[in-house]
Amino acid sequence: MSPARQSNGPPIKRKMARPNPIRPTPAPKRKPSSATPAANKGHDFVPRAFLESIALGRKFLFFPRKRTIFSQGDPADAVFCVQSGKVRFTVVSKTGKEATIGIFGEHDFFGEGSLAGQPVRMGTATAMTNCSILQIDKRTMMEALHREHDFSDRFVAYLLARNIRYEEDLVDQLFNSSEKRLARILLLLARFGKEGKPESVIPKISQEMLAEMIGTTRSRVSFFMNRFRKLGFIHYNGGLQVHSSLLNVVLHD
Fold it and tell me: Cα separation of 211 and 206, whole Å?
């Protein structure tokens, strides 16, 4: 008789021991690398830090106050990013008339026309204060825009915001009074409405320059500046300080 059977019953079912399942050991969590900002995508990505991490094709430059960064007609072969200070961008007509197109502050780009095939500079960039500038070669900047999509998205958003600002400047020039235009320029110089805290003191800027920017005379600028000071919208304390109350001039109809 087979040992697996009994004479008067069904075959005996043998229980097989089941092996314990092998569970994979979880891999240790890796801490995010902070070697280069370019490796960290997402909300922590800082375009400025990324640009500073580029090994080749960029350099830091220092320009003292009133020093020319580039002149109208120079070859357009690089893009610039302000690290500290303020830069004034002007255009001179064939008749010699000069107009201030914009003023750039910390983290602002300028000279980006070279990326769109602009062969020469359409204006002159001058340091309004002592400036630290990051210069990025055109080819290096193009490679960065193609390689780093997050940086590219932020750069395009910046250019779109710049374009909106130029449209607002045109509307301001066409429809608003010179008093409102002056108030708006002062608020923009103090960076009201931008990320971070507004600047408490605006670097020295002449009334002639303000008159050029808003398209009026120096005497009118002087009249409105005195009026703003008497109303408490601005005051002078080692520089020009702008208060948020100046918004009332812009918003009042």
Answer: 9
**pLDDT single digits (tens) 13-44:** 555 555 555 454 444 444 443 333 333 444 44
- pTM reported for the whole predicted model: 0.67
Q: Of the candidates 218, 208, 219, 201, which has an alpha carbon nearest to the alpha carbon of residue 100?
A: 208
Alpha carbons 144 and 50: distance in angstroms, whole number: 9
Question: How much is the average pLDDT of 52-67?
Answer: 86
Report the 10 Å Cβ neighbour count for 50.
19
For residue 174, is pLDDT > 90? no
How far is it, in rounded angstroms, from Cα 6 to Cα 179? 112
**Domain extents for the chain?**
42-175, 177-253
Cα atoms in the 13 Å half-sphere on the side-chain side of 20:
3
Which superfamily does 42-175 belong to? Jelly Rolls (2.60.120.10)
- On whether the CB atoms of residues 107 and 62 are closer than 8 A, the answer is no
Fold of 177-253: Arc Repressor Mutant, subunit A (1.10.10)
For residues 52 and 81, the answer to whether their CB atoms sit within 8 Å is no
Q: Is the pLDDT of residue 181 over 80?
A: yes
